[in-house]
Amino acid sequence: MSLTAPPLSLYLHIPWCVKKCPYCDFNSHAQRGALPIEDYVDALLADLERDLAQAGEAIAGRTLHSVFFGGGTPSLFAPDAIARILDGVAARIALEPAAEVTLETNPGTLEHGRFDGYLRAGVNRISIGVQSFDDDKLQRLGRIHNAGEADRAVKSAQDAGLANINIDLMYALPQQTLAGALADITAAIALRPAHISHYQLTLEPNTLFAARPPKLPDSDAAWDMQEACQAQLASAGFTQYEVSAHAAAGRRCAHNLNYWRFGDYLGIGAGAHGKLSDSASGRIVRTTKLKTPTSYLDRAARREPFGSQSEVAARDLPFEFMMNVLRLNEGVAAASFARHTGLEPGAIDALLASARGRGWMVDDPTRIAATALGQRYLNDVIELFLPEA
């Protein structure tokens, strides 16, 4: 079966933040002193050049579907630095005319008027890490902003002319009640964003919360919060299209949809990951960049590779594909499995039959999608597709 190259996105990682949150397992590093912004921008563009050269024919003629600045806290970089990055990207690979360009921001790191600058730089979507509108919960999460600053950040972005705004919220927070979780949703809806991402707080390894766990709502209470919050979002006109993503009409996140549809993406910056399909060779390659900013910048100074790459083995492709597409409520067309993995269409027929027999996946041979039951036990569904040891 031939491999068809899917849409291509670009992820850029800004690894610094003001303070590391106790629940965060992302590749983020607390800022100490002045940031090496100019050197890091140079390194990002050199990293992109190297990836494009290494990709060769696999990238020829392809354009960027979306761009995403993640972190860390990308809003620690002023608009002129973001503009320089985007100009440098456009000089090296074409962006589609309607490409979505997202910048993650933290209400505690924004200065008045900056959103105007980000918009002029080419950013057309903002994702604001609010997490909660309850000051007590924000303090327990170790956030550097308060509810008032979160409210002002969203309104400031809207006043600047940014219409495509996402609010990140978390639930099942330390000592949170169902009423408290719903109050956060009410506050977010009142700001009329285009998109709300709603995540359950989980204790991740190698975090402060993992070492010193706070008291969290139990699994039943967390499930009650999830169901009630989803119902409230739906009644306000936000459609849930992915496990944690809710969008107003026409405002689904193009960048994340590309991930979940098993699309391709270049990953540049400290700790960034990428995935690239080569239709000519039938190979799917993943890239990984050095995690620490100092090591990453040192490689840039020495003009050495920023990381490594490895081919995804055919036996791992069913699991990797399902780990992404089953997050989508609507799933994907069954034909996309063969098209985007290069495997034969029947390679997972037995596993699909097993999942459907348990009521975990829809009984439709033309679609790959989880049922409501499957969405509740999604990890179990995905584990069915792990390669045998």
Task: Please give a handful of descriptors for the protein shown.
389 residues, alpha/beta, 3-stranded antiparallel sheet, globular
Entry summary:
The chain is α/β, with parallel strands linked by helices. Helix content is 38%, strand content 22%. It has two domains: 8-258, TIM Barrel (Alpha-Beta Barrel), CATH 3.20.20.70; 314-389, Arc Repressor Mutant, subunit A, CATH 1.10.10.10.
Count of runs of 4 or more consecutive helical residues: 15
According to CATH, the homologous superfamily of the largest domain is: Aldolase class I
**Contiguous runs where pLDDT drops below 50 for at least 5 residues:** none
Annotated CATH architecture of the largest domain: Alpha-Beta Barrel
Radius of gyration based on Cα positions = 21 Å
What does this structure look like?
It is built from 15 helices and 16 strands. The two termini are 25 Å apart. It has two domains: 8-258, TIM Barrel, CATH 3.20.20.70; 314-389, Arc Repressor Mutant, subunit A, CATH 1.10.10.10. It has helices at residues 37-55, 79-92, 114-121, 135-140, 147-159, 178-190, 208-211, 219-235, 254-260, 293-301, 317-325, 335-341, 349-357, 372-376, 378-383; strands at 8-14, 16-17, 29-30, 64-71, 95-105, 125-131, 165-171, 195-200, 239-242, 245-247, 264-268, 273-278, 283-289, 307-311, 332-333, 367-368. The longest helix is centred in the first third of the chain and has 19 residues, at 37-55.
Itemize the secondary structure elements and their pairings:
Elements: E1 8-14, E2 16-17, E3 29-30, H1 37-55, E4 64-71, H2 79-92, E5 95-105, H3 114-121, E6 125-131, H4 135-140, H5 147-159, E7 165-171, H6 178-190, E8 195-200, H7 208-211, H8 219-235, E9 239-242, E10 245-247, H9 254-260, E11 264-268, E12 273-278, E13 283-289, H10 293-301, E14 307-311, H11 317-325, E15 332-333, H12 335-341, H13 349-357, E16 367-368, H14 372-376, H15 378-383
Parallel strand pairs: 1-4, 1-11, 2-3, 4-5, 5-6, 6-7, 7-8
Antiparallel strand pairs: 8-10, 9-10, 12-13, 13-14, 15-16
Helix pairs in contact: 1-2, 1-10, 2-3, 6-8
